[in-house]
User: Fold this.
Amino acid sequence: MTEYHIRTPLHKRDIAILRAGDIVYLSGIIYTARDEAHLRILELTKNNKPLPFNLDGAVIYHCGPLVVPDKKGWKIIAAGPTTSARMTDMTPALLDSHNVRAIIGKGGMKDIASVLKDNCVYLAYTGGCAALAADMIMEVPSVQFQDLGMPEAVWVLKVNNFGPLIVGVDTKGKDLYAEVIKQAEESLTKVS
Amino acid sequence: MNQIDSRYVTNAVEEIIKQAQTRLPDDVIQTLEKARDSEIDPTARSQLNAILKNIKIAGANSIPMCQDTGIMVFFVEIGRDAYPDFDLDLAILRGVQQATISVPLRPNAVEPLTRKNSGDNTGDGLPDINYSFVEGNTIKITVAPKGAGSENMSTLTMMRPSQTKQVKQFIVESVLKAGGMPCPPTIVGVGIGGSFDKSARLAKRALLRDLGQMDEYELEILKAINSLGIGPMGLGGSTTTLAVHVEKAYCHTASLPVAVNIQCWANRHASITLEVEHD
Assistant:
């Protein structure tokens, strides 16, 4: 369990050293995206339309934050992770077309290790820890796809030492969630 | 004349929503602390530490502990001598609308097929209000905001009456299938019997019980779940579930409904009791 403090945008070499179980703290820019944002990104990409943000070396955060307007623009009240499983089917296409280097979420995604291999890591942020997350979000430089509604829009977040994030799936194909579930299935004893 | 009116109820509802969103009941916090102290897995400990730190920040700053502020589920106990002379449904709904702005709550309520967001956490059928009648002259309102992460992992099955011995297995397997998705450590509410819909209601109501009061049947299920090693957030560890609460109701001789309502660690709920005096 090694601890890393990393700055965005991420390069392949930044994530290649991470191993499942390591702890990461991220600083820089992260982009929230959940179901509707994924659909919109994939649709724009399919139609060769530009995105209003740059996903090169980017960190995607499966999150639908609670936000209120303030003098500076926006204030994040709470911003914990959402269940990544809902984005499982859209993630291969997203990674095919964009150099996303890290996905932050909770719960992991089924059979994702081969999709992420060499190119991207999955970082687990503790589900429900939304007040703690808000404490580490310094500002909101912009918001995109706002027509999708508050939870589904893409919020561009400037974060400082965002974590602890646990490397759930590394670039070598090791998936902590898959290992835990496999072990759980094996240890499932009959209760009657 | 009633001591309370519609406005009073609306403000009380706004207040308990705020309390539920920003402060966990003591029994839940204590159970989480106990779990943290007994975990030996460093990853599991890190998750429980983050949760406890998060609870502290939310309480100190009076902000929601989770961005998924849920949909608002109410349980209202009306005293037989407390007959309110105003539209209680409307008073509660207005409390939800007020809380959406003042707490604030994330607007979560959407039309199921168009997915259009109402913006104020209300809509046809929302908030979900469950009434029951009790003795006395009080109205007790309990709010239990329910997030989607854990709700989506809930299960319901119509078992055969010959399968009473497989009920526990179904519950444990439901938790196994949910893995890290419902934000473990969870509380598992189970409804056995009743009808298709009643079993689900029993399961949800079971989540409101104080933690730590389990019978032998429940403890056996809890032990089986925690031996799976799923752990906090599905990253491994011995704390997958904090409590299993089972509620039962008589059912048709040909039926055996079993519902499992999973609740994330943020087992949010708060109540207020209003006294109604009549001249």
Summary: The beta strands of chain A are 3-7, 23-32, 59-61, 66-70, 73-78, 102-105, 121-125, 137-144, 154-169. Chain A touches chain B through 49 residues (CB under 8 Å). Residues 35-46 of chain A form the longest helix (12 residues).
